[in-house]
Amino acid sequence: MRAGVLSALVLSAVVLAGPARAQDTVVATVNGQKLTTADMQAAYRQLPQQFQQMPMDQLFEPLRERLIEGALLLDDAKAEKLGQDAAVKKRIEAATDAVLQEAAIAKVIATATTDDKLKAAFDAKKSQPDFKYEEVKARHILVDTKEKAEAVIKELDGGADFAEVAKKESTGPSGPQGGDLGWFRKEAMVAPFAEAAFKMDKGSYTKEPVQTQFGWHVIQVEDKRMAEPAFEEMAPVLRDEIAAAAVESMMAGLREKATIERFGPDGKPAPDPREAAAAPTDTPTDTPTPGGTAGGATDGGTEGAAPAQQ
Q1: CA angle 29, 32, 38 (to 5 degrees)
Q2: The overall pTM is greater than 0.85
Q3: Is it the case that residue 308 has pLDDT exceeding 80?
Q4: Is the pLDDT of residue 310 over 70?
Q5: Which residue has the higher pLDDT, 96 or 299?
Q6: Which CATH number fits domain 113-256+303-310: 3.50.70.10, 3.30.70.1350, 1.20.120.10, 3.10.50.40?
Q7: Do 21 and 38 form a contact (C-beta atoms < 8 A)?
Q8: What is the predicted pLDDT for the residue at 19?
């Protein structure tokens, strides 16, 4: 990596580094100021994701040199009293405001999304009717023509073992494993495959081939069950939901306590746009339009592409 690549990315992170702690290793000193491994970690966390995927050891030297350059620049700026420049003051104030705004939001989110509160929200979700979902455990045999699929079905009708036929005939990557797809949800497969599999009875196989963009399938359903998501699976979603609600509640409270005046581009008083958006209109919202539909979910192709191809 060229040293210059990190320069612009890291210099801004220097100011985020706190004072050296006793357990930190000093990696450099600049005019007596200690730069430590904690400073390195702080700068590393500010890098774009593609750099954070690289090992810290690989970035150690260029990162340390950029920290040194940042410290030198900061010393020079202070010596030149650049902080007293009106334009610089404005930028410092704006940056300070942004950090404080972020800190206020972070505090509310941290308070609202403790482990106990996330677990309480998870427990509350359990009582909802759509909390559990159906799963199917299945095998399949994938071939490239309908005629081949019909021949497979005829062989199964004659008493052949499904897994053995899959090992012999299936062109999908799961073929060597006897066509085993394991357990899956309906939305994990492409629509034609999922519709067929979830309508079947346990222990049955399709009597007619099922066509998808990958070819022709013969499906065997080995088992069916109702499952529920684990806390670890739902925690990120719950955290996002709770965080959004907490911030919205905080902002509503702050707005209610504040005196806010709004003005348009012409300087004249302007209404609260949120109130205008919430006001009822004379036009009915449920009037159908010619050719219109109520709308609904569509079957996504990308989610089920890989599993259904197996």
Answers
A1: 45
A2: no
A3: no
A4: no
A5: 96
A6: 3.10.50.40
A7: yes
A8: 43
